[in-house]
Amino acid sequence: MKKEISAVLLLVSILMLISFLSSLDFSNTGFEGLIGESVFQKRDVDIKSVKLSQEEASLSENSNPPCVPLFVVSGLDEGHYRLRTGVSSQYSNGKWVMDELSYKDAMRFSAGKIFSVTPITGFEGNLPVVKDTIAVSAPAGYNSSACLFRVDLWNDSYYGVYVPSRVESHFSGDAKLARIDIEGWKMERIRELAYKITENATSDYERLKMIESYLQNHYEYSPRYNRSADMIYDFLFVERKGICMHFASAFIALATSLDIPVRAVFGYMASPTSSSQVVYSCQAHMWVEAKLGDVWVEFDPTPPARYKIPTTTEITYWDREVVEGGNVTVRGVVRLDSGEPVESGYVEVYLKTSKESPEGELLGIARLSNGTFELSAKVNESGTYSLVAHYTGSLLYQDSWSDPEVRVLAPTEIVVNLPSYVPLSFRLEGRLVSDGEGVGNKTVIVEVDGRREVVKTDEAGGFAVNLTLSEGEHRIRIVSPKEGLYAEAVLEKNVTAGSFSFALENRTLVAMKENAVNLTVLFNSHPFSGVVRVNGISVSVEDGKATLTLVPEKPGIVEVAVGVGGFEEVLEARAKLPVEIKAEENDGRLEIRVVDAAGNPVDGAIYVNGQQVTLIEGVARVEMEGSEFRISYPGDDLHFPAELTYELHRPWYLLSIPILAAAGVWYYRNMPRLRVTLEKEHPEMPNIWKAGEEIRVRVESNLPFVVAADGEVSGTSVRFESPGKHAIRVNAIKDGRVRKVREIEIRIVEDYGKAVEEVFRMFEREVMRRRGIDCRTMTAREVMEALGVKDERLLRLFELYEYAGTRGYTRKEFVEAFEIYMSLRRVIG
Question: Buried-most residue among 75, 252, 339, 531 (CB within 10 A)?
Fold first, then answer.
């Protein structure tokens, strides 16, 4: 169906040149099958589907069919504005028969000038191309000798490349004299005229130019001619008027009579401009190529039309101003001088920088209907233009123009961050932009409650106004009036002025677990309902209340950023870890361990039956006095409090004090007791000694015992010669059997600098537990700075060993470092 519609459109356009087309065979031009009623010689073409009478199409009957738009072309120039679709070297029975060509040559893709063609109805057969074209983007067959490109059917845009400097190379080919089927005596008279015209010429080129000039100056271009069975002879010697077909055919006959090889070229005559233009059916044209040496040279003997009926085009309505990206509407009329409407045709509508400019943007094509036309089209770039309406004319009617001015305004936009809720006093800042770029030196008017503030934008389009509002609702209107080629921009918004208050009801959280936290939001002291931002996430608030789910990653301060509109506040909560207290009897003493939920030992103070005891590495040991121990941990900034009641297990059935005393004596004498300690400057000091130094072991036991160092029996004075980890083991023995064992791990170093380093690592672990500061990637000084304390003694001892490589540390520096550590523990809580 689409193919048939395209065929009908092309048929109507071609029939308006009925006398011209009646002399052609279109079997190889892309127009085959479009014209019926035996107008053309055909090769296997069905001509029954289209019927149009000779009277309806004949220009000699004063009919004037409209110009139908065929395609849009751009990229033409002064030497390349004729678009070829076929060639012929044979004239027979008053008609030109198209050359049968082979389309198997290879296209040449190289640098050159580019033109583009966009079909309106589609092409079938040869594509319109300019001379010197060496390649097209469509999948076409190519004949280099005729410079023609053939397709089966093509409906899309395509590009062509032409190389003006090499006209002889890409469609030279062999040339023979054209075959002109005319009676001998008529041909003889044509030859006599050719000799007369060229009698003073000295070359074939001069002869052809003389023939071209003679025909242009001695014959009249007119679509009103009488049809003839022998159009060449009758044109030259009888009618002396006609259209391009008559002039070109006569040129070929005259040149052939002088034995100069020439051929007819068929196609369309466009304008020599690089901008886009529509090519209409009434621009169908015939011209001539002559083979001079190795080059085909174009000649066009057809003069311009001299006697066309004048017309007047008038735009009666148009949008005098339109915003870029919007549509401009154009209405108008095309009339004859008598006032009668031009019944049909087409009007091109352009935007041009000036009405005289040959360049412009084609907005569209409007069809004439009883002399009137209307078009609405999008405009893409701001500026002041001539809105040019061009009636394209026809073979009978002259074209005409109308060109009022239209202003295309650049769209502008006011960009501000204006939330729905604003403070009572705030600075309103924004930008005026057009196509993403700031517009400077433009007026901006801010209206609030009848008050107006007028400011100018800066170079980047920015503006700012200080506003003071009363509590409640207000309407803010921001206007940038139309100025120059910038359109008006308006922004209006309702805002509520006042103040927000935010509060967390439960501010103590469990670290590393989900916590449901109640958030209270008030606006102007009233419960707020709406959406707030909590740590960047939208949360709905109903009647002033919202429930948040917070999961602190570690113990310490938890920041909760709450905001709405232009308000922002950071609330604080504190995350803590639960702790667990464990107690057990060990070697006649009560050993108490305190660990947090992450499994880390907790240091600080605990209370046992009201007496304060210090935890070291999460452990405290107390004497077992009494049968019940009430143990409480008061908590700190990172840990929750905890309590434990521990009862000593005693037989309930002891009946009397003597029995209990006897049992005690028996227990003391018979139950093994073993307590092992090392003699150190401070009991809590790490078990670190230098290689070869004496380590004194203190043993308290009611049984004989044996001291062994790394499995070898020794006395209570032990020495280890090699660095590394070692063990001192004490066995309590009774009746030849080991009844109780105590083992202590010892670390032997080559230099006490290692012991100083271990003390500082103990300090870092203490900081991490108590303050929640991750020290793993921090230097020693950064750790001190994070705590807000500075002790150059410990820093000096540590940094000289760790960073400066100082060696030769003694136990004295080790003891000094540990004593500093104990004092700093009190500072960090």
Answer: 252
Report the phi/psi class of residue 626: left, alpha or beta, with left for phi > 0 and alpha for psi in -120 to 50: left
Q: Give the CA count within 13 Å in the CB-facing half-sphere of 372.
A: 4
137 near 109, Cβ under 8 Å? no
Instruction: Return the closest-CA partner of residue 381 out of 422, 352, 404.
Output: 352
- Cα 642 to its chain centre, rounded Å, is 57
Q: For residue range 768-785, list pLDDT tens digits in order.
A: 777 777 777 788 788 777
Cβ(781)–Cβ(803) below 8 Å: no
The Cβ of residue 316 has, within 10 Å, a number of other Cβ atoms equal to 12
CA dihedral over 699, 700, 701, 702, signed as positive or negative: positive
Dist CA 131 CA 163 (whole Å): 9
Largest CA distance in the chain: 169
Task: Please choose, from the candidates 729, 728, 730, 721, the residue with its C-alpha nearest in 3D space to the C-alpha of residue 748.
Answer: 721
Over residues 559-572, the pLDDT tens digits come to 999 999 878 899 99
In this structure, which long-range contacts are made by residues 581-587, counting pairs with CB atoms below 8 Å and at least 24 apart in sequence? Answer: 581/606, 581/631, 581/633, 581/642, 581/643, 581/644, 582/644, 583/629, 583/631, 583/644, 583/646, 585/624, 585/648, 586/621, 587/673, 587/674, 587/675, 587/742
Tell me, what's the pLDDT at 651?
53
SS3 14: helix
Going by pLDDT thresholds of 50, 70 and 90, the confidence category of residue 667 is low
Could you tell me what percent of the chain has a pLDDT over 90?
Answer: 51
CA separation (Å) from 435 to 324, 409, 461, 617, 743?
10, 12, 12, 67, 81
Instruction: Report the pLDDT averaged over residues 803-827.
Output: 84
Phi and psi torsions of 439, nearest 5°? -110, 115
Please report, for residues 537, 566, 593, 651, the alpha-carbon distance to residue 625 in angstroms, rounded to integers and kept in the order given: 57, 64, 18, 17
Which of the two residues, 710 and 441, has the higher pLDDT score?
441
User: Do residues 393 and 368 lie in contact, with contact meaning Cβ atoms separated by under 8 Å?
Assistant: no
Beta carbons within 10 angstroms of residue 358's beta carbon: 11
3-state SS class at 67: coil
SS3 of 192-221: the string is HHHHHHCCCCCCHHHHHHHHHHHHHHHCEE
Identity (one letter) of the amino acid at 761?
Answer: R
Return d(Cα 542, Cα 530) in angstroms, integer: 7
| CB 378 within 8 Å of CB 326 | yes
- Average pLDDT, integer, range 641-650: 83
Rg (CA), the chain: 53
Do the Cβ atoms of 519 and 531 come closer than 8 Å?
A: no
* Torsion of the alpha carbons at 499, 505, 507 and 512, rounded to the nearest 10: -110
Structure tokens at 663: 């049992």
Both tokens of 397, joined, read 């009617």
| Most confidently modeled range among 26-30, 429-433, 799-803 | 429-433
Give the tens place of pLDDT for each residue, 337-348: 889 999 888 899
CB 745 within 8 A of CB 710: no
Collapsed DSSP state (helix, strand, coil) of residue 5: helix
Q: Are 564 and 550 a contacting pair, CB within 8 Å?
A: no
- 184-197 helix and 244-257 helix, angle to the nearest 10 degrees: 90
Residue 796: predicted pLDDT: 83
